[in-house]
Amino acid sequence: MPLVTTTEMFKKAYDGGYAVGAFNVNNMEIVQGITEAAREQHAPLILQVSKGARAYANHTYLVKLVEAAVIECPDIPIALHLDHGPDFETCKSCIDGGFTSVMIDASSKPFAENIEITRKVVEYAHDHGVVVEAELGSLAGVEDEVNVSAEDSSYTRPEEVEEFVSKTGCDSLAIAIGTSHGAYKFTAAQCTRNEQGVLVPPPLRFDILEEVSRRLPGFPIVLHGSSSVPQEFVKMINENGGKMPDAVGIPEEQLRKAATLSVCKINIDSDLRLAMTGSIRRYFAEHPDHFDPRQYLTPARANIKAIVTHKLIDVLGCAGKA
Ligand SMILES: [Zn+2]
Fold first, then answer.
1. Ligand 1 centre from 84 Cα, in Å?
2. Contact by Cβ (8 Å): 223, 174
């Protein structure tokens, strides 16, 4: 099947009590690792591209890599989504350039301005058969060119969501309930430590999620910054020359719970970066004489596939739902 929008995916996810994984893509090995996992697990899939990815890999290369994945995975629905579109022009460029979904992130702007910018993107997108994700509230952390300090981050205010959705016409809404971008989602001071000395972050604000869902029945909610920062990969990095002390993510059981509620799309990027980097670091440490990129990219791709498989089955609950 050709690239699809997320409309049907989200309806099924909402009704079925699971979420669709949205994974960021930057090169061929990442696209292959993700899509091989989704194909084998028969899972619906969102491949997303950030502004930084377009700057790194070029729009055309990324679209063609995703189109290749669509040909190789004829039995699962795949959407191509712009992650954190910063302005109308970037969104328009992706809508005109083959994407089936875009995010306009005007969450740093005042409420009225966020509505105005989002509505303009929605009008253009809907005229072209493309769906739009918008954001209310702002997440802490760093993701490509999105950089929000902990002081400037803010939870979504549930009392704003109905007006925002009705005035903008957006198709899904990203909210801030305590997830965060990057591999250092919380400082040690914000966390407690478990018996193993591993940092445990503050819990997600499910009260906000529930209030948003009550005000927007049936409406798909999106969680950004939802990597869990698996300690096995942090360890693999640190044991092979890396230096990532106290990297910390969102516990998977909390994301699993969110997926059973109104959250229909969960964004996961850092965990794939960690899997890829850990695999390559270990390969270099074990094979200092090798220099063929195919040699070290093969285990990197395999570990991306492994972690995505785990997410589809154990966190998102979307395996077998394609
Ligand atoms: Zn994000």
1. 6
2. yes
Query: How much is the pLDDT for 186?
Result: 85
At 228-240, the pLDDT tens digits run: 999 999 999 999 9
Query: Which residues span the domain enclosing 110?
Result: 7-316
Q: Is 101 helix (H, G, I), strand (E, B) or coil?
A: strand
Active site residue 144: no
Kind and range of the H or E run holding 104: strand 101-104
Residue with tokens 């253009």: 124
- pLDDT tens digits, residue range 77-97? 999 999 999 999 999 999 999
User: How many Å lie between the centroid of ligand 1 and the Cα of residue 124?
Assistant: 22
Question: Does 322 fall in a domain?
Answer: no
Q: What's 122's domain CATH number?
A: 3.20.20.70
Name the catalytic one among 15, 75, 83, 127: 83
Separation of alpha carbons 18 and 6, rounded Å: 14
Among 119, 112, 221, CA closest to 168: 119
